[in-house]
Amino acid sequence: MLDRIKRFKGSFPTIHLIAASACIFIVSIVLLLVPSEEVSATRSITLDISESTPSETTLESLPPTSNIADLPAETEVIQAEAEPVAPEAVPENWVKYQVSSGDNLTTLFKKAGLTARDVYNVASATKPHKTFSRMHPGETLAFLIEGGELKKLRYIESQLVSTLITAQDSGFSVEKIERVPEVRQQFTSGTIVNSLFVDGERAGLSNKKIMELASLFGWDVDFVLDIREGDSFSVMYEEHFLDGEKIDEGPILAAQFTNQGNTFTALRYTNSEGDSNYFTPDGYSMRKAFLRSPVDFARISSRFDLKRKHPVLNRIRAHKGVDYAASTGTPIKSAGDGKIIFRGVKGGYGNVVIVQHGSNITTLYAHMKSFKRGQSVGSRVKQGQVIGFVGSSGLATGPHLHYEFRLNDVHKNPLTVKLPQAEPVAKSERGSFDLAANKLMAQLETYQATQVAQLSQ
């Protein structure tokens, strides 16, 4: 064997033998690295089914370079089904119209392009519910009309109350929708530096809430005459939210006002019959039989003075009332419950209203610009009800209200006369009131202490 190799080697040049050996070596390496057709197919399946069984293999699970023909016969190929896609909701095309003065169903349906027959059908369906018996300006009617036909009607009275009217095969269905707001307690306090309005706004109170606060303590504090720098107030009240958004303010729950060192406290209490009023912590009514001032935030221009010199007549003439300087048109309120016994022109008083309260008290309101419509001699009025508007009729140098308080036909100083008290908490309500009052006082004091602590930090 060794002799044969020597003879073979001698038959070829050495360079040829080296080249042939190199070629053999390269071919051997390639054959070792390239797998057989069977091995290649096996590896492809292993990758494809690593996370599923053969029966679950889908076209989507195959690598992009895979060939279906390469799969073993037992492998079942399943066509992937696309997941169903929910159709997009088609937005409803509502058309809204705001109710204006003089509007009714007919005018609003006409604006929406509907017919008298549509008005009749809706009116008939809603008549038992009295849905449209009293529409008010500012409310809204929203129409959903498709192909010229009314499909839905939404009557929006407020953010909390609405009615949905839906077309059915047999007519219209009517659904009253009432939402309940989230009620949150709010607290604020402040010190008088300028005025109740300015400092109340600085404390975060709305104009409406400031007016409520002034009315609440208006029987004890004259917010024109008595207010001093350094007076203070604390207010706990409700705020109403809908879907996280503030929509309204609720009533004052508890409040304190300190005026010239005297602190007045008012607590809201709702009795067993559902009537709400304000009382002191001891159960006495905050409400007096008479308001101290019949004009809000007016300036006293002339006081009760029996020896005053008349500015027009230029002679000594007793001033048997109080003058409140205010802008022309400022509302004048009745100081107490009573009946109008005079309404007209009365000499130098100009336009006058006189109200009888009980059997022995009358109040007079003079120099009015005009009277409140709808009232006349004999009309009953409630405390705080508007009876006229500030003017300068009669002997007046400028717009103001002249106000008199008479007891048994004797003039009394409206600023100092002792006003009779309203009824306290009923005896039958006393236990319930004490529980409610103690809770409110504890909450009010907690809020006050917390705010003091925050300010001291």
Question: How would you describe this protein?
Answer:
- This protein has 457 residues and is of the alpha+beta class.
- It folds into four domains: 1-36; 94-178, Nuclear Transport Factor 2, Chain: A, CATH 3.10.450.350; 184-279, Nuclear Transport Factor 2, Chain: A, CATH 3.10.450; 299-412, Glucose Permease (Domain IIA), CATH 2.70.70.
- It is built from eight helices and 20 strands.
- The strands form three sheets. Strands 11, 12, 13, 14, 15, 16, 17, 18, 19 and 20 form a ten-stranded antiparallel β-sheet that branches.
- Helix 4 packs across helix 5 (116-126).
- The protein is extended.
- The protein starts with a helix and ends with a helix.
- The model is unreliable at 36-78 (pLDDT under 50).
How many domains, in number, for the residues? 4
Helix fraction, binned, reads: 10-25%
CATH topology tier name of the largest domain:
Glucose Permease (Domain IIA)
Report strand %.
Answer: 25-35%
Q: Which overall shape is indicated by the principal axes computed on the Cα atoms? A: extended
- The count of β-strands is 20
- What is the assigned CATH homologous superfamily of the largest domain? Glucose Permease (Domain IIA)
Derived from helix and strand composition plus strand pairing, the structural class reads alpha+beta
* Distinct helical segment count: 8
Average pLDDT across residues? Answer: 81
Low-confidence stretches: 36-78
What is the CATH C level class of the largest domain, in words?
Mainly Beta
Architecture (CATH level 2) name of the largest domain: Distorted Sandwich
C-alpha Rg (nearest Å): 45 Å
Summarize the biggest pleated sheet: 10 strands, antiparallel
Q: Give the termini distance in whole angstroms.
A: 109 Å
